[in-house]
## 1
Amino acid sequence: MKNQPNSFAQRYEAKDLPSALADVAKLINGKKPAVFLDYDGCLSPIVKDPDKAVMTEEMRDTLRRLADVCSVAVVSGRDRANVEKLVQLDNLYYAGSHGFDISGPNNMHTEPGGAKEAIPALDKANITLDERLKDVEGVLVERKRYAIAVHYRNVPEDQVNRVLQVTEEVIAQHPELKKGPGKKIMELKPNLDWHKGKAVLWLMEELDLNQPDILPIYIGDDITDEDAFATLQGQGIGVMVGEHDEQTAAEYRLEDVDEVQVFLEALTQTIKKQPHV
Ligand SMILES: O=P(O)(O)OC[C@H]1O[C@H](O[C@H]2O[C@H](CO)[C@@H](O)[C@H](O)[C@H]2O)[C@H](O)[C@@H](O)[C@@H]1O
């Protein structure tokens, strides 16, 4: 199963999953983790304004310490440059636009999903969405290099359907694009078989992490993280933060961003006690 996305993943109710905090040493079982983290809802709480989703200094210190003892990557739906700016750590890897745009230490930068040809369609869709949604109160059209998120969290309830309908119509005009779900957003993404799970596999290969003593751990809170949970089932550990509207392919849970930080601290301490670090 190594390096193949798992399309037959088991699904669970998030509330029924065991806590990842119960016994961290037992969880990693003497292996060395490679940690993949979502940003919004995982490293920073969900807030009304995406520009205000700022990570705390404490979380930054926690990530810095973790990255001193194992590989750490942030795998986000955000624009890669944007998430780099929010996290501000240069010893991490960053996968932005749901994995289409990847950077890392020593000037690593690559765009492995092959999405360049979707850029003109994204540009056109961006213009149409700005124009057609300009009168809707609270709507936000967020352009990323390889995606557009149409945010409706702050849109009056009676106008949400109109936002969704316009967004679907614009997607239908561009065969190069497809629809993606998210928390109070509808996304336009390149119509390609590439997602966060494939980005994780790509990073594991690139960083030579496909080793029997390495344990990939993916932590996320949103539906887009399900691709990564499903991909890692059987070869790693998926940790769901809170819950979303669907069943999850994660096998452990954490309640919220605070518990993510406690877990990452515990992981760092556990790794340090292991003989091979
Ligand atoms: O994969 P992620 O790093 O979790 O990114 C997913 C999306 O996160 C952002 O939107 C979400 O968080 C916002 C701030 O808390 C919130 O206002 C919004 O409702 C959420 O959907 C980001 O703005 C998107 O681009 C990402 O795709």
## 2
Amino acid sequence: METTIKIVKREKSWIESSAIEQLESVAKLGGMVRAVGLPDIHVGKTPVGAAFVTKGIVYPHIIGNDVGCGMSLFSTGIARKKFKVSKVVKKLEKLQLDAMEPCCEIIPELEDIDEQFKRKLGTIGSGNHFAEFQEICEVHDNDELSKLGIKRGEVYLLVHSGSRSYGEHILRKHIEKNMGGKGLLQGIEGFNEYMDDHKRAVFFAMGNRMIVASSVCNHIGTSESRLILNSVHNGVSSYRDEFGEELFIHRKGAAPSDVGCIVVAGSRGSKSYIVKPSENLSDYAFSISHGAGRKWSRFSCKERLENVISKRAVRGGDVGSNIVCSDKKLIYEEAPQAYKDIERVIEDMLHENMITLVASLNPLVTYKG
Ligand SMILES: Nc1nc2c(ncn2[C@@H]2O[C@H](COP(=O)(O)O)[C@@H](O)[C@H]2O)c(=O)[nH]1
Ligand SMILES: [Mn+2]
């Protein structure tokens, strides 16, 4: 069967040819039906910002080690007027999520997993994982926003985190057992085992984001951290096509279009967006961009930025946000300049009628692991 390849881009879009080559190479794998490159696509072990539809086979290496990674938006119950940025920064500088008591009784699906993984619950992880206080800066669809219970004038918390060392363990186990990127044929030994482990990792990541949100909110003095939006951007899910055939959507840095509104994250120095995906995006593997996507590789960031802009400017960004991060290296690696322009990613999706806008969010304080 011929694989359909679709790349969502326009002339102005910033997409490296190497990312497209990676997508085309993955699209050649057996059982591949459709490959979609979203506007945030960039190079990874397999391309990030992409969705792949297969028939009769699942590829754990496409999903990678951070199974279940996603974005969750929580209400905090704090009025923007009462949120004093400098005070929150000072409080968060003392927060050590790694040193907190593990708490996993609240997730029954995870009862049987090893203690070493349970201990990681409630920790955010390194790299670009974050917990970010945000305010609504522009409303595009008032009705949709009030249906979500989101109010202008209040502070929200966006948490981006995944399944920590548990996801890594799952990937290694299945790759070792099944010889790398060969994939798991539906119906053979190993297929159901991966799907069960994958399901647990998705619960793990979701639980993790909830515990992080509750710890961060408690730490700054609010008992509220109510989940409003949740989306998983690294994972596999199945659906039936119009002929009743079961197909598998692999999402690697791609948000689902069929779970309601989604937060598309920008960077700690730019806006993020709440968007409503359009219905029946089957040509796009029922997926939309999950973020802005990297423009620069991690290792090139410090060299590019160090002598060009001041340390103060690296910490801030277009919208003058604030970062709490004990790892100096990460401040460069995760600088807003290292990411593509979120406005362009959003414009590309609007141009294809993939989404409508609900609201945009400004970062106030970003906590990185
Ligand atoms: N609002 C923020 N968005 C951020 C930050 N750091 C990264 N990002 C965005 O999130 C996605 C996540 O990428 P993933 O492939 O690792 O899941 C990334 O593309 C950026 O657009 C931040 O500090 N704040
Ligand atoms: Mn992620």
## 3
Amino acid sequence: MQFIIPYDGALWPLLMALLSIWLMSTVVLFVYRITFHPLARFPGPKLPAMSYANEFWFDVVRGGRYTHEILRMHEKYGPIVRINPNELHCNDPTFVDVVYALDHDHHRRRNAAMSKCFSRSRIRQIEHLIHVNAQKLCDKVLARQNSAPFAIVQAYSCFTADIISHYCFGDSDCYLDQDDWEPNFRTLVDNFERNLHIFRHIPGLATLVERIPLILTNLFSTEMKTIAINFKVSIPRRVRRAMDLSFVSVGEVPTILSALLSSNLPPSEKTLRRLTGEAVSLMGGGTESTSATLVLLTFHLLSNPNHHKRLYDEISAITTNPLQLPDWKALEKLNFFSAVILECLRLLPGVSGRSPRIATHEDLIYEGKLFSGADSLAPSFSYTVPRGFPISMSTYILHTNETIFPNAKDFVPDRWLDENGNVNRELERYLLSFSKGSRQCIGRHLALCELYVCAAAMILRVFPFLKLYQTSRVDVDYDHDELIGKPSPQSNGVRVQVLDKFREPDVKS
Ligand code: HEM
């Protein structure tokens, strides 16, 4: 069959014609987006309203910096702005509950089987796993007395990876049992996070990396290759083993994969591919955010002897033997301890970028003041957010709102305590670390249990031997988004040195 193109054989005119058509349609699309598009009347600069180029520039080229740009848009245009052709962003804390009450039926159904594995009571049943690993972590850090300084994130991510791998597959990665901190799952997560914005802006890329034969991954960067090898070989191999075994448990509790395989999920949700996807997101979600929160806690306690002393005394008061800590339930009753954990969760935006939600069945009415804050005379206005369009809020922006959290960039655990010294639960409404609603973090209870138990063990057993090494605020302060909020790319992380002498935490004036 002959395919006939009506042109005289010269390639240039054809290319020019195609280019003109593409240019014209792009111009028409841009004009539509700022005139008749359902979001056209929302405030915001014209460039992001017309195309995704702005977001691409700040996130992909400048490395996860669109959140800063969104904050600038809010300062200029008010509490609700259009940040790309199809998405709105809100910077009004009073709207949190409305946005995150939006439900996602599909997500809820998919998560039902999984959320059983992460209920508070299930986590209490596997709590011994967390205690054992916390003590192992302390032993391993203490064994490095007078050795070279190291980045403490390595230690914490071995701890979190060992727990989630054990609970997921039934056999731990055993990173805490090896001589050094590397290799560990963090290297993979780090690679993935650094490339996250590219994956988000080029949606087919993730599928391509997943589908392409392993041999061809040599064409990609080493980072992409590591990701591909893990997603295509290592994790599927462990999932297949779990599928071959009939039942694996941690004590009395089934592992996550055993629980999913024996649940009433349809067979389409139990394929090797689906379960590998779940395992990847559990390993990723279960490793990085919790260890980063522990790093932040380590930095702030080692650089604030007053806080360290207060916490040391509070935990010691309910502990007879630091090698056998009180359980999570008892630890979370400690008010100052809880305040420190909440303050760390506030300052380290778990998923720092925006978490969009879509109202599928109803329009949302937003009523706000033109300028946020206490100015009751500021002009008020109302917007109808049309159904079907994402509206998002960003953890970092909300958590640094000066009206809710005065001196927001500072580490002030006492802000979480009321005048009686009890935790102010009302303020927790504005904590978006685990997100909210049907898409909130599934591992929330596991994360909290790990934070309390590991921090208690480190505070009593290890921090009195630890000293920060060439570390300052730059190494912890939020700079840009990867998946979690990250400090400046120039940072070497929070590094510590283990001394050979136990120093009782002391109050410095
Ligand atoms: C301090 C620790 C943690 C923080 C701050 C955190 C925060 C978050 C946030 C904000 C989300 C996104 C929700 C959204 O889509 O809007 C998320 C999702 C998720 N998290 Fe966590 N997380 C933490 C620890 C954990 C742990 C220990 C696990 C253990 C398995 C975990 C597993 C997951 C998974 C699987 C998802 C994806 C849920 C889904 O959309 O299917 N996270 N997390």
## 4
Amino acid sequence: MLKEKWDELADVKEELAERDWFMGTSGNLAIKVSNHPLQFLVTASGKDKRKRTRDDFLLVDEFGRPVEENHLKPSAETLLHVEIYRRTNAGCSLHVHTIDNNVISEVYGDNGEVTFQGQELIKAFDIWEEDAVLKIPIIRNYAHIPTLADTFAEHVTGDSGAVLIRNHGITVWGRTSFEAKKILEASEFLFRYQLRLLEHKPYQLFKVV
Ligand SMILES: CSCCC(=O)C(=O)COP(=O)(O)O
Ligand SMILES: [Zn+2]
């Protein structure tokens, strides 16, 4: 099981690396290994996530502490992943910093959320109604990680979802790694679309949906 989950997360990491979503060692990924006790694999802190090595991940418990003595440190943002696995049935959580998610988070940061409507890719969030509205929350980037995790946790209300951290990045989660990746890719598509749209229709910024 552990080996299977390790390989699954390593494959996701490789795919996100191909998209160049781990600039400057940023980003962290996690995958649940067991429910009782709650244990998940998380990326080791400060690594170049474009490389595939035997030190890429370590197993942590429900508090984000390494399960075994280890020379590796869990991601500095492990507590955000902890909140996801404690509160939901998610199986995988992904955090990346991109230019698009940072710019979107700054443009709409004062609103506390960014809203999308009338875009086909909203369906990737399992929202199928014709005029459905997708809201992605934007939270403040607290340097104190327990405070960041507490603020983040307020928005972790379902087994899949996405939260932007202002001028920092996005964290998404899903029941499976496939679902988490789908939500991440769809979010980044929507962010790029919205930013491109603003170049052509700047007044869209003030449109209330
Ligand atoms: C160098 S990026 C700053 C830390 C961060 O936001 C991040 O995503 C990576 O931290 P980690 O400890 O998971 O490597
Ligand atoms: Zn980060």
